[in-house]
Amino acid sequence: MTLAEENYLKAIYHLENQSSNEVSTNALAEEMQTKASSVTDMIKKLAEKNMVSYIPYQGVTLSKAGRAHAVKVVRKHRLWEVFLLEKLNFSWDEVHDVAEQLEHIKSEKLTDKLDEFLDFPKVDPHGDPIPDKHGNFEEIDKTSLTDAQEGQSYVCIGVHDSSSDFLKYLDANHISLGTTIEIIHKEPFDNSVKIKFNDVELVVSENVAKNLFLQEA
Amino acid sequence: MTLAEENYLKAIYHLENQSSNEVSTNALAEEMQTKASSVTDMIKKLAEKNMVSYIPYQGVTLSKAGRAHAVKVVRKHRLWEVFLLEKLNFSWDEVHDVAEQLEHIKSEKLTDKLDEFLDFPKVDPHGDPIPDKHGNFEEIDKTSLTDAQEGQSYVCIGVHDSSSDFLKYLDANHISLGTTIEIIHKEPFDNSVKIKFNDVELVVSENVAKNLFLQEA
DNA sequence: TTAAAAGTTTAGACAAAGCTAAATAATCTT
DNA sequence: AAGATTATTTAGCTTTGTCTAAACTTTTAA
Predict the structure, then answer these.
(1) Structure ipTM
(2) Do domains B3-62 and B143-216 have the same CATH topology?
(3) B144's torsion region: left (phi>0), alpha (psi -120 to 50) or beta?
(4) For a Cys-Cys bond, which of A126, A145, B48, B53 suits A212, CB 3.0-4.6 Å?
């Protein structure tokens, strides 16, 4: 698997998890920041290698082998994120880009030793689960802040958008994973939400609310 | 700098350090395990980018910028080797191949944080010096075992050949960096050397002797 | 000091991964 | 159910890094 192939597998994997349908050429092109024609070419190559099954005009789905490979890349990505944050003191908005490079290092021994060195972490700095050596992981039960109930308390357990901008926004407002928040008011007009944590009240936009994952406290 | 370009710079750097002349196309091809014609093509590209100076038929030398870049790659390689050995418990014959991949990760922050995490090591697991953030390092004063004097004692401080086979040979014979050895006898017939360390005597071939670096004890 | 050998470069191809423009299929609209 | 729109694929080209075979320099040695 080349670097480009691995990135496609990862992108297909992410899109499959988001909508459970076949992944369309255009959706993949959007995700990969490339052109639909390039996607078609690559999909054909991946189909040749039995990493995806592909019917022209009908989209693409990962094969067993393709999904297994994608999960390995995801495992590496998330382990490196933990390493960067916990051992090298990167901030959580900085880890993603470097992990994008490190996830392609080929050495099963390295991955497993790193896992051990980090004490077998279960989630990465954005709250996403880390597959174990065999590709198994627990899907985390999460509610978006938009779906939270007024009056109820929750713990922040993850983010949907792990862009640097969003994470910096959370940092600036002192929200991190583990923070307990209470839903004070949901404003129907603009879907903003007033929350309270550490005795401070804060109104967050719908956009922020959509991207923050919670678990009932 | 692409991955291939970086590997060429590194190879030129190593060859320059070995013989101080211009690096010939064939020598580079040998080092890179490729064909002379491929080397010519790449050299031209590196010359375009002012990373090397190149006169056809006369070989190639690194420019300031080229050398600086090569040193950065070497720094990363050696830091990762220390990480793999000290933090992840790789053995010294396993670190090289993985470091070959890790040395191309682009993030100055990562490199410098890693350096700090490892407590600014001065040498890698094979005794080679690690350049600091600014590219500076001390050349280590080393004698090959072939040049050692009978009756004299030395400390092992490095290896020339860091192939897995050679390092496994040393491991099997309990020779590691820091081991103090005494030269018992140099055999002129085949240039083998009888050494003694930890109260054990051992005869090593010329090939081994050439690849073991010492410092007077 | 010239011919052979050795070393190097050029010319022309190829595979990977991308692009644009054109063609084709699927879907939506009325 | 046909035309329009949207989605997808194909065709042909580009760049990077490699290769083989042929041509050309440089060195060596008679």
Answers:
(1) 0.93
(2) no
(3) beta
(4) A145
**Which of B89, B101, B109 comes nearest A113 by C-beta?**
B89
Q: Which nucleotide has the least CA–C1' distance to A32? A: C18
Superfamily for the A143-216 domain: Ferrous iron transport protein A (FeoA) (2.30.30.90)
Backbone angles phi, psi at B191, to 5 degrees: 60, 20
Dist. CA A60–CA A9, nearest whole Å:
11
B21: amino acid identity, one letter: N
CB contact under 8 A, B94 and A101: no
CA of A68 to C1' of D13 (A): 35
Interface of B with A (CB under 8 A): 84, 87-90, 94, 97-98, 101-102, 105-107, 109-110, 113-114, 117
Chain A hits for B97, Cβ within 8 Å: 107
As its CATH architecture, domain A3-62 has Orthogonal Bundle (1.10)
Mean pLDDT by 10 residues, chain A (217 residues): 97 95 96 97 97 97 98 98 98 95 98 98 97 96 95 96 93 96 97 96 97 95
Tell me the angle at which helices B36-48 and B3-19 cross, rounded to the nearest 10 degrees: 100
3-state secondary structure (DSSP) of residue B194: strand
Give Cα separations from A184 to A80, A156, B19, B38 (angstroms): 37, 15, 74, 67
Distance B36 CA to D23 C1' (A): 15
- CA dist A177 and A186 (Å) reads 22
Q: Domain residues of chain B, as ranges? A: 3-62, 143-216
Residues 6+ apart with CB under 8 A from B192: B203, B204, B205, B206, B209
Residues 6+ apart with CB under 8 A from B20: none
Give the C-alpha distances (Å, rounded to integers) separating B106 from A87, A164, A176, A217: 18, 18, 28, 41
Instruction: Give the pLDDT of residue A20.
Output: 87
